Amino acid sequence: MTIKVDTASLQAEAAKLRRPRHRTREVRVGDKVVGGDNPIWVQSMTTPDTHDLEATVAQIHRLEEAGCEIVRGTVPKPQDAAVLSEIRRRIRLPLICDIHFDYKMALAALDHPVDKIRINPGNIGGYDRYRQVIRKAKERGLPMRIGVNAGSLERELVEKHGYPCPAAMVESALRYIDIAESEGYHDLIVSLKSSDVLTAVEAYRLYVQYADYPTHIGITEAGKAPYAVTKSASGLAPILLDGIGDTIRISLLGDPVPEIAAAFDILQATQRRVRKPELIACPTCGRLEIDLEAIIAEMEKRLGGKTTPVKVSILGCVVNGPGEAREADLGIAAGKGKGVIFKRGEIVRHVLEHEMVDALMEEIDKWEREEAEHGRLGGEKSPFVDGGKLRLPVLK
Length: 396
Ligand code: SF4
What we know:
By secondary structure, the chain is an alpha/beta fold. The chain has helices spanning 7-16, 53-66, 78-82, 84-90, 103-109, 127-140, 155-161, 166-182, 197-207, 227-241, 257-269, 292-303, 321-327, 356-373, 382-385, and strands at 27-29, 32-34, 41-45, 70-74, 95-99, 116-119, 144-149, 188-193, 216-217, 247-248, 278-281, 311-315, 330-335, 338-343, 346-352. 41% of the residues lie in helices and 17% in strands.
């Protein structure tokens, strides 16, 4: 069989595969605006008893140092609600209080200067109690996350749909959105979490067909790293590449600090939020002609802390090196003990192996200055406002 290739229609079909960002309303959470064209904020959750004030605040500071942008703490007891004002006073991040089962804890938490409340309406004790929480959040001018979870769906919905499937989860979310709207309350963020990757992906895809409240995305109870990071990436990548997601949390067993780097890496790899250089390196093989591992280790060290979204390719031999280097913003195509540096597809200099790292760093600095002069480095928002290869998502 001969397949006839029509270039124009191939390109048109390919263009359709790039999903635009799902249009969502903007909801303010402290100093962050979630939804719309805003960055996909990275959040995490504290692990000490919330009423252990020193331990909770210390962990929030460690999370902030790691880059966390919004933090959540659980409020299961009155003594946890009692310390919320003091926690808020001692941290800079927007603080979310997380409530399960007891609507009175939600009402108590809302007496404090928190920035958002997260409840699971399916386990809060019925519609009347849910309405009471909505009314108080509205009165306080605070947003709320409706956290639907496959593991705690209303029994009636599970029976109706047969099992806690995506349709049942979305029906639950829409039901609680409807009630909130009937109270004139629209400051909602929605999550549809499952520990099952397929269920979570399908639930988010289904949800966006019905509503435009921003989404908090995550694969719940992913377990222990490193498998948990791979599992989270497996679920979150299709969701993000579909243009879904306004804030993200990676759930890892134990210390939450590593969640932050994992979340940023997933956002970077899916090009939804590019905030550091992208280093492209080959796996090496018998053709290798330079000490690539040493060069990459040194480059990683020197690039640490840089936020420029520059794509740098370093490949170990002439097989793919020149092609990759031409496609990247900057790249080295290596040969035996030497190489050529490409910038925006053009050869700019020849270097020996021992000069490669210094030369590449000089070229990166130059590239940054040139991009800045042309107003192409827009800081945190640059992935969202610029086109181009790496800064892909003009997510309209
Ligand atoms: S770029 Fe060269 S050295 Fe690297 S994996 Fe490919 S063939 Fe091997």
